[in-house]
From TrEMBL:
GO MF entry, a single one: hydrolase activity
Key words of the record: Hydrolase, Metal-binding, Zinc
InterPro entries: MBL_Glyoxalase_II, Metallo-B-lactamas, RibonucZ/Hydroxyglut_hydro
UniProt name for this protein: Beta-lactamase-like
Length: 212
């Protein structure tokens, strides 16, 4: 069974998630934006085995620690979609602009496309390409755990920003309504910032995407 633990990191309180297969303890670090020692302390405390890095998109608060973590532990970096390459190429510059130390650029081991799957021990998750916040944003969905890890596409009561480079409001709304809602109202989603919610709650109450 897939398990997970959310660890807020960086001054942006970005939700870095540890996902693991409870049979093998193989673990993916989802969106390691920074504060790696805090993340690694949770890995050690839970007895997890680092196996992969997964990225939803290329903004620094989500991807800023990926290269360092990959180099320290020999981990592959999986995702996001290749349309975010321009953001990853600019990570070092982003680091200088926003006060993130030791940020390095990298080339993901594997880019992800809509409909791909990623495997973690005995658990398999589906990938959905959900552009709008960034052009290469992806979401990871586990049907067995009834969880979706949505990065900055959707938040409890809000949606991702679209005023950043290559963001687009209409595209983001389409990603939410066409690619997230079909996962089911009972699906719990883990956003890139803030508390968890369900798609059903957001369809009823989120002023940006509620059903009319």
């Amino acid at each position: 069974m897939l398990r997970y633990l959310t660890v807020p990191v960086t001054p942006y309180q970005q939700n870095c998630s540890l996902l693991w297969c409870d049979q093998t303890m193989k673990t993916a670090v989802l969106d390691p934006g920074g504060d790696l020692e805090r993340v690694l302390a949770q890995v050690a405390r839970a007895g997890l085995v680092l196996d992969q890095i997964w990225l939803t998109h290329g903004h620094i608060d989500h991807a800023g620690g990926a290269a360092e973590l990959a180099l320290r532990f020999g981990l592959p970096i999986i995702g996001p979609h290749q349309a975010d390459q321009f953001l990853i190429d600019g990570l070092a510059l982003q680091g200088k602009m926003f006060g993130f130390a030791h940020v390095q650029t990298f080339t993901p081991t594997r880019w992800l496309n809509d409909g791909d799957t990623v495997k973690l021990g005995h658990s398999t998750l589906t990938v959905r390409h959900c552009p709008g916040h960034t052009p290469g944003h992806v979401v990871f969905y586990s049907s067995e755990a009834n969880r979706a890890f949505v990065g900055d596409v959707l938040f409890a009561g809000s949606i991702g920003r679209t005023d950043l480079p290559q963001g687009d409001h209409d595209t983001l709304i389409a990603s939410i309504t066409q690619r997230l809602w079909p996962m089911g109202n009972d699906t719990v989603f883990v956003p890139g910032h803030g508390p968890e919610s369900t798609f059903g709650i957001e369809r009823r109450s989120n002023p940006y995407v509620r059903d009319t």
